Amino acid sequence: MFSDRLEISSPGGLPGFITLDNIVEEHFSRNPRIVSGLFQWGYIEELGMGVDLMIDEMVRAGHPVPAFQASDAMFNVTFQSAQQRAPLPPGGTSGQTMNERQAKALAYVQQNARIRSRDYQELCPDVSPETLRLDLADLVERGLLLKIGEKRGTYYIFK
User: Fold this and answer.
1) Cβ atoms of 142 and 130 closer than 8 Å
2) CATH label of the domain that carries residue 131
3) Distance between CA atoms of 70 and 35, rounded to whole angstroms?
4) What is the pLDDT of residues 46-105, one digit of tens each?
5) Residue 15 is part of which domain span?
6) How many structural domains are present in the chain?
7) Residue 129 placed within a domain
8) Is 85 part of a structural domain of the chain?
9) Which of 9, 91, 120, 157 is deepest in the core (most CB within 10 A)?
10) In the prediction, which pLDDT does 156 show?
11) Angle at the Cα of 63 (from 61 to 68), degrees rounded to 5?
12) CATH label of the domain that carries residue 62
């Protein structure tokens, strides 16, 4: 435990086919019998919800997304303390220009901690879903947003 973060290390690498790239979407149990018992006794609700819950709770509390590191011999998670965010200027950062839709998306994230494609489509109902997807991908590429998840569970938060 540090003044600005909490680091947790677990001996052993990630289980099975789990990688840092798919840790949010995929689920794997080293010991299904233990998972079954924990479920039956009410200690867990569903297999694989731990990482999602960590990310959601950190974002909801105003903290950065947990940082995951893995090697063959160790798995580490770092929880950073909340950082004050200055409001983003409507024109973007570092002289980069962004369109009005993207500014709306960033304002939405600032107010709600995250944005999903569905939320963005409600903000910009007259714009095609593909254009909105490209807008969000651009904000990720610029380093302003972080994409969490894949397919239907995808949402975006401040990086």
Assistant:
1) no
2) 1.10.10.10
3) 22
4) 676 778 778 778 877 777 888 889 888 999 999 988 754 444 444 444 445 678 888 889
5) 5-80
6) 2
7) yes
8) no
9) 120
10) 92
11) 125
12) 3.30.565.60
